[in-house]
Structures are given as C-alpha cells and as structure tokens.
C-alpha cells in the first residue's frame, strides 16, 4: 500500500535549513496497521503530511497505491467551530458533491456507530475532548478511506477514554479493512494498535527499528505478557537512540 525509500525532508527557515527526516525507509502492506513513534520533533507529522500529499517538497521515493482514498486526522481535530457535529461530519461528502441521500446515510451510520448521534446538533465548543475526537474520526470514516492517517489522535484524552477509543478504532479497522498509519508518543498505544511499529530517532528522523506484533486486533493483547515485553523493548530502544544522539 505504501512504500517509502530514503525519504528526506528539509524545511527552509529564516534561521537556515531544518532537516526533519534524513532518509526514512519502510513499507506498509494493504490492510496493515502501522504505528510511528519517536521523540518530539523527529518528523512524525512531516511524514504524515508527505503521505497525505500535503507536502510535496521532499527527496526520495514515496509510493501510495493508486486510487487510494486517503483521510487524515490532525492532531487538534480540525473541526470547524461554527458548524455542528452533523455538519462537520458531512463536510467532506458535500465537498465531493455526493447525493444528499448518500450523505444522510453515511453520516447517520457513523454518528450512530461512534455514539454521537444524540449530539448531532451540538457545536465543537459544547463537546468534551473525547467527543471531538470521535467527531474527527467520524468525519474521516464517512469518506470510506482505504488509508487512514492519524496524528496523535488520542493524545488529549484521559486513560480510560483513550483505551475505549483505541478499541473502537481496532473494531473499525477490522470491519473496514482499511490501512492505518498512526503517529503517537505513547509506547503502549503504539504496541496495542501497531501490527508494525516504526521507531524513529531524534531529529532528523531515521528508522531505528521496526517491530511486528501479530496479536494486534485481539483486545486481550494489552494484558498478554508479550505486550509488556514489547513495550519495554521499545522504551529501551527509544532511550538508547536518545542517548546516542546526545552522547
Ligand atoms: N513548517 C515548518 N517550518 C520549519 N520547520 C518546521 C516546519 N514544520 C516542522 N518543522 C520542524 O521540523 C521538525 C519535525 O517536525 P514535526 O512536526 O514533523 O515533528 P513531530 O515528530 O511530529 O513532533 P511532535 O512529536 O512534537 O508533534 C521539527 O524540528 C520542527 O520544528
């Protein structure tokens, strides 16, 4: 689904060039869930922007399978404050000029599926962080994407809401069979959701390691002894990569 080879991104700023990614290579299979983890500023969001086609100024090779419908969920949800829940979720479909009945069908389906239907006339300012997050997810899913790109989707939520939404995301992933690339700061989240976890070094980002977790999708994976081993391994690798950088 995705092939990235030797991806380099440098931002030009008034203070000089800032190298964000310095030769990143990895692949994501169709239907796979991939988590990208690494220290703050190592280029994770930049990587998503490149995959979404929003950043085209890069070196290296980035291939996303042809005719892929891509949906991107940004770090701060990107909801329009002057539109209510229903309108926010319907926005992308209206822009694509889908027939009103189809808009109605898909929006109701996902609002109900994500427990938002009763809130459909409320505005973002009247919602909790977790509800806003679910609206952002609904807005992406109504587009029926083949590829779902998510930038720290659950970062502002309390632990229990976060775990509940992670499980909802897994259910949706299994139902829709879409490919997921998720950026996160949380080691536990990366291991729970990522069949593949790509670990990046401090800026400029390079791939330090790629791990695979075949039990992802099973809700009890979080309580499996191997889960804790996987988290510990990544924690050690992250701190080693940080030390190598500063040392
Ligand atoms: N538009 C920009 N202009 C200049 N520099 C930028 C720009 N966007 C990002 N950068 C720099 O590129 C580097 C990578 O940024 P990016 O947002 O991709 O990192 P990140 O890993 O997602 O960070 P975080 O985990 O803190 O969200 C950072 O050093 C950042 O300051």
UniProtKB/TrEMBL annotation:
Domain ABC transporter positions: 4-227
Keywords: ATP-binding, Nucleotide-binding, Transport
Entries under Pfam families matching the protein: ABC_tran (PF00005)
GO MF annotation: an example: ATP hydrolysis activity
InterPro entries, alphabetized: AAA+_ATPase (IPR003593), ABC_transporter-like_ATP-bd (IPR003439), ABC_transporter-like_CS (IPR017871), ABC_transporter_ATP-bind (IPR050166), P-loop_NTPase (IPR027417)
CDD domains noted in UniProt: ABC_NrtD_SsuB_transporters
PANTHER family: ALIPHATIC SULFONATES IMPORT ATP-BINDING PROTEIN SSUB, TAURINE IMPORT ATP-BINDING PROTEIN-RELATED
Descriptive protein name: ABC transporter ATP-binding protein
Source organism (scientific name): Ammonifex thiophilus
Lineage of origin: Bacteria, Bacillati, Bacillota, Clostridia, Thermoanaerobacterales
